[in-house]
Amino acid sequence: MSKVIVQGNAQGKVLKSTNPINFLGAVDKKTGIIRDKKYDIFEKSMKDTVLVFPHGIGSSVGAYTIYSLKSNQSAPIAMICTKADLTVASGCALANIPMIVVSNEEFDSIQDGNQITIDTKSEKIFN
Amino acid sequence: MELTSEEKDALNGKHGETLQIAYRILVATGEATDAEKLIPIKWAHLSGVNYNTIGDSGEQFLRELSKDARVKVKATVNPMGIDFDHISEFNHIDDEFVKKQASIRDSYIRMGVEPTFSCTPYDIFDLPEKNTQVSFAESNAAIFANSLGGLKTNKESAFSALASAITGKSPYSDLRKENIATPMTIRMKMDNPSELDFGMLGFFAGKVGDTSVNISGVSQPNRRSCKALCGGMGTSGTCAKFQFVDNEDEKSEKVDFGKEEMNEVFDELNTAEKGDVITLGSPQLGLEELSDLSKMLKGKSFQKRCMIFCSRAVQEQARTLDYINEIERAGGEILSDCCTCLTPLIDTNETDAVTTNSIKGAYYLKNSTGVDVNLKPLSKIIEDETK
User: Fold this and answer.
1) How far is it, in rounded angstroms, from Cα B153 to Cα B176?
2) Rounded distance, CA A95 to CA A90, Å?
3) Mean pLDDT of chain B
4) Which of B2, B262, B293, B310 is the most exposed place for a label (fewest CB within 10 A)?
5) CA A75 – CA A77 distance, rounded (Å)
6) Domain annotation covers residue A122
């Protein structure tokens, strides 16, 4: 685990995207479903998943989308990125969603659909 | 990140819940960008104002926060979803939207922001002196401030800029510092680019660039093209700064932006051959652009609805200078406090496609509003859509 941005524990199924995510443009804030055809996780929902993706892109208002997902109970239970951008970091901080940054090698080793456990206190990820 | 004892107290809740929330955000964004400390900022520009973008949870959050939170530095705000002076002309806008949008507006005003409702604060205010640290969330404004205004900001998020407005501080990292690694150079290979081409260049640069890019092969673009470049760049990536360079740095990685790259962006965002309505303004038009538009429209009239978005401050100046008469005579509808992006003014029950010259507008029309887009430079819009 390279760096903890928002503390917390989570256990759940990985939803992995290799595309950077524009939360405002590409994610439905009520359901958590990806609605941009260009994404490899198009039409999948991030609700209750451990969302694994490179980093956030685009609108600064994406931070509100993350907060809305949490309020609407459609948020991921944790996020894992290779680069922490301000939109995702601040959205997770306000919504209390554990968020960590990992190396490219660790990112590559995480498989879509697998169960994963994150514990930021002991700085461990269990695949 | 090192915090002062005062900052630590605030983070631990000793100065109340509002400041605790603000410091929690600043610490997370500080950790995210490897900042060593927080530094004072002079001006925060906030996003997250349009009810369409922040929804019920955003409206509730701001209503609660504004009971206690007050901005500590100059703070300006992004566009709302609608122009309250023109609601009666848009029958499809429901009362719920108007009520929630008014609540968001009032929450920001209660916190003490200047009610600019504009994505182009650089068109409204004189910019502070060079190298002043600011905190701009609106991506086109952050890019403009860094690249053309000589100011310093990271590409802030809605929450990091809000936290900066309330505390007067931001993490000291990335573009706020002097030394950044040699950026990639984008070589502009298109001759006589229109503002639409500059928007596509920006969209491309935002995708391939990191935090900052150099752009070669461009000579003195006008303000409309510069704004299009900032808008396009902010939409597609994390890049928050560009510099026009005459000589390419040997150490810099180089990427061409030619016909092929441009067509790829065009095909991604242009999905219709014609639009049912026209929108101009994302970013909102400035005084110079309204002046140009009034000249281009002399003796002509739009053959379909054309919505023209500018800030209220710019609209007032343009009326005084008599630029608006000609535009309204030609059938253009001047709208303020909102813009093309995510406005509910576009009635999706009656509109299949929108014609615009904005790459930023196109991205959100397509992905958020859910309509098709017909992209054309302004000169071509005037040629095709007026008589």
Assistant:
1) 6
2) 8
3) 96
4) B2
5) 6
6) no
The reply to whether A124 falls in a domain is no
Which tops the pLDDT comparison, A120 or B277?
B277
Q: Do B156 and A67 touch (CB under 8 A)?
A: no
B267 CB-contact burial (10 Å; exposed 0-12 / middle 13-18 / buried 19+)? exposed
Radius of gyration of chain A (CA): 13
Structure ipTM: 0.93
How many structural domains does chain A have? 1
Q: Are A82 and A46 in contact (CB under 8 A)?
A: no
Closest approach of chain B CAs to the CA of A5, in angstroms? 5
Q: How far is CA A12 from CA A51, B104, B282, B366, in A?
A: 10, 35, 40, 33
- Please give the pLDDT value at position B386: 98
Report the half-sphere exposure of B261 (CA within 13 A, side-chain side).
21
Tell which B residues from 131 to 190 touch A, by Cβ distance under 8 Å.
137-139, 154-161, 163
pLDDT at B128: 98
Cβ-based contacts under 8 A for chains A and B: 134
Inspect the interface and report whether the beta carbons of A4 and B31 lie closer than 8 Å: yes
B6 Cβ contact list (under 8 Å, min separation 6): none
Q: Give, for B261, the enclosing helix (H) or strand (E).
A: helix B259-269
Question: Which residues fall within 8 angstroms of residue B98, CB to CB, at 6 or more apart?
Answer: B82, B84, B87
Q: What is the DSSP track for B97-165?
A: HHHHHHHHHHHHHHHT-B----S-HHHHS---STT-B-EE-SHHHHHHHHHTS--B-----HHHHHHHH
A73-82 residue pLDDT tens: 999 999 999 9
- Boundaries of domain holding A28: 1-117
* Total-model pTM: 0.95
- Specify if A40 maps to a domain: yes
Eight-state DSSP code of residue B182? P
Count of C-beta atoms within a 10 Å radius of residue B22: 27
Q: Is the pLDDT of residue A127 over 80?
A: no
- CATH number of the domain to which A14 belongs: 3.50.30.10
Residue at A125 is within a domain: no
pLDDT < 70 stretches in chain B: 179
Q: Do A60 and B47 touch (CB under 8 A)?
A: yes
Catalytic residue among A17, A59, A74, A90: A59
